[in-house]
Description:
Radius of gyration of chain A: 13 Å
Oligomer: heterodimer
Structural class of chain A: mainly beta
Number of strands of chain B: 12
Number of helices of chain B: 0
Amino acid sequence: DSGVTQTPKHLITATGQRVTLRCSPRSGDLSVYWYQQSLDQGLQFLIQYYNGEERAKGNILERFSAQQFPDLHSELNLSSLELGDSALYFCASSVDGGDNQPQHFGDGTRLSIL
Amino acid sequence: AQSVAQPEDQVNVAEGNPLTVKCTYSVSGNPYLFWYVQYPNRGLQFLLKYITGDNLVKGSYGFEAEFNKSQTSFHLKKPSALVSDSALYFCVLTGAGGYQKVTFGIGTKLQVIP
């Protein structure tokens, strides 16, 4: 058990809709990362937060947004959903967000767009 | 731009034999390199990392990796494979800064045959 909790585990919705994915980091970790895993694109880094502030941005679409709250949990918001957004979305956390730190991954949220 | 290559989509090895999963990287500056393992329907689990120092790094579950700067490689190895080692292995590069922040290889599926 990594200590990182993601909810929900599965989400099924329709094109054009909006969803929110939630992540609770491992106790004591200040940094949260979001990733998208799909068969055609592999694992893509989306965004990183550290102690409530955005630290780095990767291949995140403008339709997607995220935030980290004062209690350090994080939410990833996906809007105007398209079929191509169907993927496994992972959250990971690390102690201080340093590049030399290992990340601890949740088990993901599987998003299916119908 | 930084990149990671895992040249083999799949590696098959007999139980008890040594295994190697290959990774090469491209980056300007000094890399931070990681190996993670992913079991079906689970998040990634950290195995080991190279930051600096000894080129041979030991990690979890008997795995080790050898950093070779001249060949820009970071191959994962284990002296004796177990059936339970069958999983998807990712080589990951961080620390090079810039847009990509965290770069994943495409993953190598390891199949250990009883």
